[in-house]
Amino acid sequence: MNLGSRRPVEEPELNLTSLIDVVFCLIIFFVVTTTFDDRSALNIQLPKAAPSESLPVGEPLQLQIDAEGRYFIAGNEVLRRDGAALREALQQIAGDDRERSVILRADARTPHQAVVTAMDALGAVGFTRLSIATLPEAPDDAASGDGG
Predict the structure, then answer these.
(1) Which of 3-12, 53-62, 67-76 shows the lowest mean pLDDT across its residues?
(2) Which of 32, 127, 132, 139 suits 145 as a labelling partner, its CA being 20 to 30 A distant?
(3) Which domain holds residue 86?
(4) β-strand 61-65 against 102-106: which pairing, if any?
């Protein structure tokens, strides 16, 4: 004689929905907070610049590039940022004087492509005397010999 209830025995059930939500949140957290090491395979030491004692003869042409990559020739802004517009502006401002020296003053935060475009335009127009303006070495940098 069976005196127990006639209810069917319920199997215990494990609800995985909450567990999946927590694991998914942890994965997203770790992906967002992970930092990736972007070290180059090449060890490059950039050169330091010492102040020059000799100044170029005559008034040099000033080509300035700001942090956003905008070009200024002798204080006048070049409206477009492409190489063709820069070459045209250089030809108009410099005239026929290609022996004139050019000082390139680029902001330290200038995109590298803007500096390369400016140097390419200067070479295409025919300028051969280019100086890149730098700041003198700080006394601490010169003493430490650190390669940067």
Answers:
(1) 53-62
(2) 132
(3) 61-132
(4) parallel
Instruction: Dig out the tokens for 35 from the structure.
Output: 């930092």
Residue among 116, 92, 94 at smallest CA distance from 106: 116
The token duo for 12 is 């215990």
Strand order, beta sheet including 61-65: 76-77, 71-73, 61-65, 102-106, 130-132
Q: What is the pLDDT of residue 134?
A: 77
Q: Where are the beta strands (DSSP E) in 66-128?
A: 71-73, 76-77, 102-106
In a domain, 43, yes or no: no
Segment 15-38, tens digit of pLDDT: 888 899 999 999 999 888 887 655
How many domains are there within the chain?
1
In a domain, 109, yes or no: yes
pLDDT (0 to 100) of residue 25: 95
Q: What is the DSSP secondary structure assignment for residue 27, as one 8-state letter?
A: H
Looking up residue 77, the CATH number of its domain turns out to be 3.30.420.270
Q: What is the pLDDT of residues 81-131, one digit of tens each?
A: 888 888 898 888 887 878 888 888 888 888 888 888 989 998 888 888 888
Residue 121: φ, ψ to 5°:
-65, -40
Question: For residue 62, which phi and psi values (nearest 5 degrees)?
Answer: -95, 120
Q: How many residues does the chain have?
A: 148
